[in-house]
Amino acid sequence: MNRWGEKRYHSLDYDLKNTYGEKVYKITLNGGMTCPNRDGTVGTGGCIFCSSKGSGDFAGSASRSISEQITRGKQDLRKKRPVHSYIAYFQAFTNTYAPAARLEELYLEAIQDPEVKILSIATRPDCLGDDVLEVLDRINQIKPVWVELGLQTIHPAAASYIRRGYTLSIFEKAVRDLRGLGITVIVHTIFYLPGESQEEMLNTIDYLNDMDIQGIKLQLLHILRDTDLAADYARQPFHVPDMMEYIQFLGTCIARLNPRITIHRLTGDGPEELLIAPLWTSNKRTVLNTLHRHLKEQDIWQGKEYHD
Ligand code: SF4
């Protein structure tokens, strides 16, 4: 079982080492954008789980230029290890939500550094108009562009609860448009949304298996301080899995996942100072070690239960 190095799943690390010959590190950036789900265009409260920093709690400060954020990000990473290759990752808020000319300036600034190998952009599928797609196309001719779309779930009830603010058909159009330009698409999913069964979560995986996407982020729902989700949880606590329940579910999910899709994330790492639950996710090393042991003991690998 060494199709992906020592791991039993198709990891991002494996892909990057294969392509660039070494580990490639992310520098999280803040381009100073907001989000249509916060400024009133789509909604005002934002997604129910989203922190005040627009799910960009590890991103640099928007008061600094992109070049400065990259320089600082490199300095921080190099304190711990020698690093030569980076992904410039626009993480905070909706990173295609600005005039196209401004976006192009920001993206060009990010990729001008020769050590930045990839531009990764987190956004909403309803913020990819023709002018934005043209910018992404031009940048993708210079360096690879990844676009990360926050889908979270395919189920309308959960999508409505989290106030996602767009329909599945908009997501499908965004994937088609991006893939028409040869842009890498990564999809963000959230497990254990209140009221969703494991079977429903796996339906989201089955759906994505058939889509032309290249990567997936599997995120366990994090309840963060000062969010509407935290208020709901305080009023009426909903089920939050313990580590073993989540590991067992992840095993099932990995077995169902199409082996060609790269896994970019397996749990998520909410900022410790904001995290209310599940607190065990802070110990990422233990979570990953336990998962690797579980996959080995149960002889699970990515795609074991996937059938074309
Ligand atoms: S779309 Fe992203 S930035 Fe906007 S509210 Fe939702 S999670 Fe937050």
From TrEMBL:
Keywords, sorted A to Z: 4Fe-4S, Iron, Iron-sulfur, Metal-binding, S-adenosyl-L-methionine
Lineage, opening ranks: Bacteria, Bacillati, Bacillota, Clostridia, Lachnospirales
Cofactor requirement: [4Fe-4S] cluster
Domain Radical SAM core: 19-272
PANTHER family: HISTONE ACETYLTRANSFERASE-RELATED (PTHR11135), PROTEIN YHCC (PTHR11135:SF1)
GO molecular function annotation: 4 iron, 4 sulfur cluster binding; catalytic activity; metal ion binding
Listed SMART domains: Elp3
Cited NCBIfam families: TIGR01212 family radical SAM protein
Protein name stated in the entry: Radical SAM core domain-containing protein
